[in-house]
Design a protein that fits this description.
This protein has helices at residues 3-30, 65-75, 97-105, 117-122, 128-137, 156-163, 169-196, and strands at residues 38-43, 49-54, 87-93, 110-115, 152-155. It is of the alpha/beta class. 33% of the residues are buried.
């Protein structure tokens, strides 16, 4: 399989995982006051979904989608838990500074995300990721090292923008349609969250 075909297969699976495994959890969690962020782990060997979770900040403000996923991951029996090196880390939204650090400390060598930090601010009215990066670390939007000694990360929509011209029409149309369907579902979930977040006891809501 060529590198491009492998990447296409991976992007297909990442989008399927968001739509089929993460979003249903998120849509339910939003109804009780949680934010829209979620995450999942896929097996590198066959790209099947290993574990999926969503934001659980109503329980703890530390339980971002990625953090709640890692909590669940480390609650698995150690003898049954696949090592991080055998897993792909998928985040629906570009991880905040806390989640970036957690992914690193947990030993993952990769992550992929669907929405960027700027999307979280502009499309979801949740600017805290960017504010924390700037106020605490003096890092401008997107200026952390996406490829470093610990991991490589890739934005799904950025990959599609970069490689769309290399894809055949059917593949491009399918991926684009899947992206737009996911964006619509997140827009609806975000609207519900914003309309009901007052008084939800999340410090940075």
């Amino acid at each position: 399989m060529s590198t491009l075909q492998h990447d296409i297969t991976l992007i297909h699976r990442l989008l399927e995982t968001i739509a089929q495994d993460i979003l249903p959890l998120t849509e339910e969690a939003v109804r009780i006051g949680n934010k829209v962020f979620g995450a999942a782990l896929l097996k590198k060997s066959d790209l099947t979904t290993y574990l999926a979770e969503t934001n659980n900040e109503m329980e703890s403000p530390l339980h971002h989608g990625e953090m709640h996923l890692l909590k669940r991951y480390y609650e698995l029996p150690s003898a049954e838990r696949l090592p991080p090196g055998e897993l792909i880390f998928l985040s629906t939204h570009e991880p905040c500074s806390m989640c970036l650090s957690a992914i690193t400390w947990a030993g993952f060598d990769n992550f992929h995300y669907f929405f960027s930090h700027s999307d979280s601010r502009d499309e979801f009215a949740i600017p805290h990721d960017l504010k924390i990066l700037k106020e605490v670390f003096d890092v401008d939007p997107g200026e952390y090292h996406h490829h470093n000694a610990f991991w490589d990360c890739q934005g799904i929509r950025e990959w599609l923008s970069e490689h769309g011209s290399e894809l055949d029409d059917d593949t491009l149309q399918t991926l684009t349609a899947n992206v737009e369907a996911i964006r619509r579902r997140y827009a609806a979930a975000s609207e519900h969250y914003q309309a009901s977040k007052d008084g939800n006891r999340i410090p940075l809501n």
